[in-house]
Amino acid sequence: GNRFDHYDAVMRVGIMGGTFDPIHHGHLVAASEVADRFGLDQVVFVPTGEPWQKSDVSVSPAEDRYLMTVIATASNPRFTVSRVDIDRGGPTYTVDTLRDLRRTYGSDAEMFFITGADALSKILSWKDADDLFSLAHFVGVTRPGFDLSAEHLPTNTVSLIQVPAMAISSTDCRRRVEAGKPVWYLVPDGVVQYINKRGLYRKVGNN
Ligand code: ATP
Ligand code: MG
């Protein structure tokens, strides 16, 4: 059976934060690998809130990013999506995400914040960096094009793991759609269809 009996075990929750504009197979593989390696019961995908008006016009509406994340994760029984960052509004700070999810899952839950090599190196510049490490364990995953290192980060709360290399970024997916190039197999089929249905990432507003 499972390593953890649900009635007496501490819940182990992975948290995958991102803009998810759009969600792609790099995000999904990272979450799946960390779930396997750390015996997670669940991975919660948390799309970021809408940036303050006009601060970054290039980010798609939160509801589109939320729905693409739901579509991409729906078939995995261990994957869920949280609206905490979207509903809080404004720019997202990871410390707020972790505090809200700590309230949701309770003080006993073990939380694992999953982050790619590019984001990991910036942690110390995040809001309330000192509190971050008391709220969750941090798992840095490899990402092509970035060095994975936890230099200057507390070694007892940060783990580094290797995941299958997916040279995919949301930025590249958006540029491909804009240029009329395919994103099939970079993002889940349902996400390709949603992008087309909503006409996302096209310079001219109509599909
Ligand atoms: P953008 O190009 O818009 O920044 P992105 O592809 O970097 O998009 P984000 O939503 O910014 O995606 O990333 C969310 C999290 O997923 C970050 O921690 C990021 O490092 C990680 N991540 C994104 N793509 C990959 C990938 N291909 N492999 C491993 N981790 C990834
Ligand atoms: Mg990014």
TrEMBL record:
Note whether Transcription occurs among the keywords. no
Q: Does the keyword Nucleotide-binding apply?
A: yes
UniProt-listed InterPro entries: Cyt_trans-like, NadD/NMNAT, Rossmann-like_a/b/a_fold
E.C. code: 2.7.7.18
Pathway assigned to this chain's UniProt record: Cofactor biosynthesis; NAD(+) biosynthesis; deamido-NAD(+) from nicotinate D-ribonucleotide: step 1/1
Superkingdom field: Bacteria
Q: Which HAMAP family match?
A: NaMN_adenylyltr (MF_00244)
Q: What is this protein called?
A: Probable nicotinate-nucleotide adenylyltransferase
- Organism name: Dactylosporangium sucinum
User: What taxonomic ancestry is recorded?
Assistant: Bacteria, Bacillati, Actinomycetota, Actinomycetes, Micromonosporales
Gene behind the chain: nadD
